[in-house]
Amino acid sequence: MKIKPSLQLLALESLQYSTYEEFERAYTTYGMRGQYWHLTINPDFQIDAAYCPRDASTLSSGGPGANPGLMVSGDIECWYATLGTGRSFAAQIDISSLIPDVDYVNPQLLPPQLTPTV
């Protein structure tokens, strides 16, 4: 079967699960989309484990006590429409080697000790 290019990463993501129910849970509960993006102003973006996100998300205040991490989205169009002003670059983030509920709880804010591929 030929898979559309825009769905190929999602198709690869689905192969990690034994049943449709496992994939459905990963997709709906954990937001596993097979492809993630980080919007940035830096054309040479690199992951920084000490960085605390500072935008309008409830996951990141950037203030005292903020948790370091990397904010990513499987829906880059929505993120750009909401917060993208001034962010001219998008880094594709590969989290295919990470395990939901083990390596992270929320795929939108990855813990700093993880080293996904940019």
Keywords for this entry:
two-stranded antiparallel ribbon; 118 residues; single chain; 12% strand; alpha+beta
User: How much strand?
Assistant: 5-15%
Strand count = 4
Proportion of helical residues: 10-25%
Mean pLDDT: 75
Sheet with most strands: 2 strands, antiparallel
Structural category is alpha+beta
Shape: globular
Cα gyration radius (Å): 15 Å
Write the layout of secondary structure elements.
Layout (H helix, E strand, L loop, with lengths): L7 H7 L5 H9 L7 E5 L29 E2 L4 H8 L5 E5 L15 E2 L8
Antiparallel strand pairs: 1-3, 2-4
Structural features, described:
This protein has 118 residues and is an alpha+beta fold. It is built from 3 helices and 4 strands; from the N terminus they run ααββαββ. It has a domain at 33-110. The strands form 2 sheets. The chain has a two-stranded antiparallel sheet. Strands 2-4 form a two-stranded antiparallel ribbon. The longest helix has 9 residues, at 20-28. The chain is globular. The model has no long low-confidence stretch (mean pLDDT 75).
